[in-house]
Amino acid sequence: METKEVFINGLGLIGSSLARAIKKRNPEIIITAADTNKNTLKYAISNKIIDKVVENLENIKTADIIILATPVDQIIKMLHELSKLQLKSGAIITDVGSTKQAILKAAEELVQPSVTFIGGHPMAGSHESGIAAGRADLFANAFYFLVPLKTKNKQIKELQSLLQETNVKWFEIEADTHDKLVGQISHLPHIIAATLVNRTENEFADSKLGMELAAGGFKSTTRIASSDPAMWSAILKTNTTILIDQLAKYQQQLSEVQEALSNGDQEQLYNLFFQAKNSRDKLN
């Protein structure tokens, strides 16, 4: 099926970047969109990121591909709404949510046989948010997870073709494996960064000197603490079981560091940094 019309719900950093990438390679495709922020929609129209604003879900019935690019809780709510509509035959629905088990469960409500749901998650982003921060090359060389509800290779290839300009590395994965993986390498680091900033702010509550003197190490470690609070609280809410387990393991390792400090165990402290350096250097 030739893609002629795409509907995007949510024109924040991710949604607007996808829209830009689609338009860059396929300017003839009509992109319609919805967003709770009217200023965002005005920006999208004036900058030719989208072609039309959708104010009623009835108007998305002509869309070939529907992209849900809102926080996870809103994606789940939208899937419930879409399940009540008679969508275009052959339509593909996908999302960009950071957890997948809860979303795929909600997608099971889509009983229209000619409609395909493909869970998606581009592993790219920024501590900045909003439509003005979006760009067509945001996802370049990043992994883009695909979690199909039911494997349909034709529809997967169609989605990949639409998003070809993103230049991502496609990776199919099971929902539970995905949530455990991103819990460790994405969600947990966001929790750690946020708590480190808050702990430091509390530590120097009586003096601004500490935060004012924060330099490269602190800033680079906590950069992601500037991420959108609404989005991240919604993400964590749908991955609680996995995160509780990962937090417990992390707290255990912190306890071991505390014990090593108390015992003056320099060897253990050395091994902590040696192992971390070897692992981190492999990412460069």
From TrEMBL:
Domain Prephenate/arogenate dehydrogenase stretches: 4-284
Which reaction(s) are listed as its catalytic activity?
prephenate + NAD(+) = 3-(4-hydroxyphenyl)pyruvate + CO2 + NADH
Q: Which GO terms describe its biological process?
A: tyrosine biosynthetic process
Q: What is its EC number?
A: 1.3.1.12
Named from the GO MF annotations, one term is:
NAD+ binding
- EC primary class: oxidoreductase
The UniProt record lists the keyword DNA damage: no
What is the protein name for this chain? Prephenate dehydrogenase
Taxonomic lineage of the native organism: Bacteria, Bacillati, Bacillota, Bacilli, Lactobacillales
